[in-house]
Fold this sequence. Notes:
Strand content: 15-25%
Number of strands: 12
Number of helices: 16
Distance between the termini: 32 Å
Shape: globular
Amino acid sequence: MTAANLNANPVLVHALRGGIVESAHRGAVAIVDADGTVHTALGDIDRPIFPRSAIKVLQALPLVESGAADAYGLSNEELALACASHGGEPMHVATAASMLAKAGLDAAALECGVHWPYHDGSLKALAAAGKTPSALHNNCSGKHAGFVCLGCMLTGRNDADARRGFVKGYRAPEHAVMREVTAAIQATTGWDLATTAVGTDGCSIPTYAIPLRHLALAFARVATGVGLRDGHAKAAHRLRQAVAKAPQMVAGSGRFDSNVMARFSERLFCKVGAEGVHCAALPELGLGVAIKMDDGNTARACEVAQAAVVQALLKRLSDDEQTTLAAMSDIALVNWNGVEVGRLQAAPALRALAS
Length: 355
């Protein structure tokens, strides 16, 4: 896609300073129901984009449908972590380790790579203790622990060595685990993954280019179960319930996804992905939402956009809930002296959704 094409997308978020727009973040938004009817389309919703970590709930469907979640007695916290991009806090690390232990394996089975915790306090505490991070601290360790549990279930074996041998290499597209995961993504999105562009995600699994229209459709299906086979529908419902009961596992302290889902419980499931992607399921409305910021701004713009969309769509909001979403879609920019120097605001294109 050329720059000219991207410039056709509307401005979704403004950064203001000194009373004028300092920066403008363009992007596209798809809001779709489970039958595929488009509720709202802003910008190009048919351009295939890489959803990255925004679709972890889709990738976790086989973990539940296969019976692995029941066989290993995975808790709500563990199922929520399977859908997570967490900050590497102690609770996240311990929960990922617990998932692996229930399947008879340990952190050595993880193939997500190693990085320092994203959560600043946890990073500093680890360094102060003279320790280094492991794969358990990787923000994708819960998702990968879920893949390992799925692989252990697929072996049909109780022997730890046999399980470890079978699971090895699970991140490869041709592995039995990744074939199950890919099939779940294709079934929920309705997009032909065999003919689309394929990349490699940060945690080394395949990531497939899918249009926002189809990503929003998948999240509407996760919200309602409509259009999903029975096993996927039941798995989606269970995962949404688990996340509603343990939202801090999905992101962590001070993070948008955990904060907003703690506030709205089962009324909202949402998940950020790298490069400015954000998806949401709204069960009471039967809608799915998919957002892509053209500049890849995940740190601030896509979350402001999602807050504005949810605020516009959700009905029966209390004053408290309105205040929560308003604060997330209109954020003060503060300098190192604590002085407010500007605002980060949803642009008129998003505000108009409420009318």
